[in-house]
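Before surveying the methods themselves, let us examine one representative protein, pairing a chain with its fold in token form.
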Amino acid sequence: MRKSDQTSRRSFLISAAAASAAAGVVPLAGRASAGFGANDKVRIATVGMGIIGFIDTDCALKVPGVELVAVADLYEGRRVHAKEVYGDRVETLVDYRRILDRKDVDAVLLCVPDHWHARMSVDAMRAGKAVYCEKPMVRTVEEGPEVIKVQQETKSVFQVGSQFASSVVFDKLKQVLDSGAIGKLHSVEARYNRNSALGAWQYSIPTDASPKTVDFDRFLGGAPKIVFNADHFFRWRKYWAYGTAVAGDLFVHLLTAIHHATGALGPTRVAAMGGRRYWNDGREVYDLIMGLLDYPETDKHPAFTLALQTDFEDGGGDNSLFRFVGSDGVIDVTFNGLKVTRVGIEQATTEQILKGYNSVTTFSRAGQAAFAARLREEKKAPRAEEKEAESFAAPKGYDARLDHFTKFFASIREGKPVEEDATFGYRAAAPALLCNDSYRQGRMIAWDPVAMRFPVESGNITSGVLRPR
């Protein structure tokens, strides 16, 4: 990136985010919740009927009192299938703006490519709709402040669709961390790996894909104009113009869970490396990335370093896990449960100090004897025994996505706080997007997680500690 571009980008973020740095989740009693009772029907419409569009719609409809009235998609086959699944009473549209014009639509589910998230979110909130926007909330760091600003101005019910913010597993993790069960947290490791073509976004392309069945120009939106390309439309995550690569797809889930459990606002330094290691299928984005993020000490948590990984060619199997490391123990976490193991910092026995792998054995015999005599006078404590491990598992069949939707509709009906509002969503998305920037620019990037912008002065952030200005 040219220096002038960096200066312009920084200036934009400083001015745009200055009024949007309020932290935390706040109650919203905006347009969408006005006039709703706790049992009133909520009518929804889904924009984007790809894989996640059908998954989210099906899940939303499991919440009592929710009715689907319309969907929009740019591919004819998905509009046809929507009627096959949900019935002829559901209107199918091409232009999402026609959904926003409908007075009977209370809430919209935005399940579209990443480059449409910010624009559709803003349009929907200004149209008076409640919004459930799939993660990441934005495609670029620059887009975040406007979404936050519009949510605050309109008082809209706006929730980002990263369901682990509502998971009972990460609620339990938060309790365990807050209890001090593992002592002082200092390190977190998280990975979300895959090992298949479908996991690597090589989704099937329909046989009838053509300019006649796909509104490709509308799909492109503000992206560079190109001739019809089915791979770009149906496998859009592989291309920088529409998606946010692996970090934007999967790091956001990991960051959402970690921020929810720790109360973290974000890192002060981000560095990432990776590349295309296996899926040489014409994609522009990498298939392997590792990120290192430094989190400063706050009133919610001690300083810790986070290591993130997503590998699309994990020959050991499709797996995801978290590891929270503290001075007294470790918490191993999956999306379905957790286990707490407490050993702590080992206190060596007298025998280990005198005859084990230690420098005492290199002293002269007289020196060893003198050291042993002093050690016994000090009455060194024996090694502490390991405490019994504890575990927690989510109920069989538990669905965090359903909990997330249940809370979303409770916000609409009852004005309850949104679980993952625009501020939280941006704070989860920004570090992932900065991993992309670090990878592409080959440098470490500093970030101010409180103000949600690049530091005004480089001296404000040093060694991972956020200093007051």
In short: DSSP finds 14 helices and 17 strands in the chain. Residues 1-33, 458-469 have pLDDT under 50 and may be disordered.
